[in-house]
Design goal:
alpha+beta; Ubiquitin-like (UB roll); Fumarate Reductase Iron-sulfur Protein, Chain B, domain 2; 5-stranded mixed sheet; two-stranded antiparallel sheet; 13 helices
Length: 333
Amino acid sequence: MRLAFTIQKYNPEIDQHPHDEIYHLDVSPGLTILDALIRLKNEEDGRLTFRYSCRSAICGSCAMEINGSEKLACRTSIRKEWERHREITVAPLKNLAVIKDLAVDMRSFWQKNRTIVPWLLSGENKVVAREKELSTPDLAVFHNVDACIQCGACVAACTSHEADRHFLGPAALAKAYRFVADTRESEDARNARLATLQEPAGMWDCTRCNFCVQVCPKDVQPMEAIIRLRRAAIERGLTNTGGARHVIGFRDLIAKYGRLNEALMPLKVIGLNVRHFLSVLPLGLRMLVKGKVPSPLHPRIKGVEHIRAILERSGPRRDVSHLRPDAHGEADG
C-alpha cells in the first residue's frame, strides 16, 4: 500500500519557518514509523534529520509527535496510525527548540533533570557511601518511576511547561520521587529535598492535565508521582505554599460542610496575606455581582459526619476530629 507521509521540515540555515513536506512510500504490514523514516531518508531525501538508536523502545531517542501525540517512532505501527487517523503526520517534540527537522535540542531537558540530586543522602548532605538494603524490598514502593527512559515525551505534552519554561517538568519530578520514596535516605535529607521541590516552578506548578501520563511509553505516570511528592510534603509539615494551603483548605472545607465552599476557598489559599487578598478582591467583587459566588454561610449537608469519617481514614494525613459535631449538632472550627 502506498501512503503519504506529511513531515515537518526545518533547516535553520536556510528556512525562516518550519514547513510541511509530503512524501510517498510503499509500505507493508508490520512497519513502524521509524522504519518508514529510515527508508525515506535512504530512498527519497538524504537530508531528512531525526534521531534513533536502539529501535526497541529502550533509549527514547526517537520520541516525536505522530498524528498530534507524543510517541516513540520505533514502536508506533503505521497500520494502526492509518486506521485510526487516515493520515500520517510527523513533527518534532513541542516545548523544545528544533535543531533540524525532527531533531530537537534536549539540553534544557537534561539541565532540569540534573537539578535533582541523583543519589541517596544520609544526612547533612552526606552520600550514602556503602551498600544498604531497602527496609521494604518490594520495588512497588517506587510506583514504576525508575522505568523512565528520558525520552522527553512528557515534557513535550506538558501544558505547565508550555506556559512556563522554568517548570521542572514531569520527568525531573518523577525522578525526584524515586529518591523521596527510598527508605535508605535519611528523614532530614528527604525533608530538604521536598523543601527544594516546593519552590516556584517545582511540584506545585503542575496543573494535573494528565497529558504526561497519557503519552509516557513506559507507564511511569509522572503526574501521579508529583501528587505523591505533594502528599509527602504536606505530611511533613511543608505547608507554606499556596498549593499546599489549597489542598489543606479544600479538605478542611469538605470536612466541615460536606461540600466545597467556593466563597471561603480563596481565603484558605491566601491566608493572612493582605496584599494577595487585595489583588483578588476586584475579581471576587465581579464574581459576586455576576452571581458566581455562593453564600459563605451555606449550611452543612446532612450526614456530614460520614464524610469526616472517610477523611480521617484517607490522606493527606490531617486530623479532622475537631470538626465533629458538639452536643448541639454544630462543628467547631
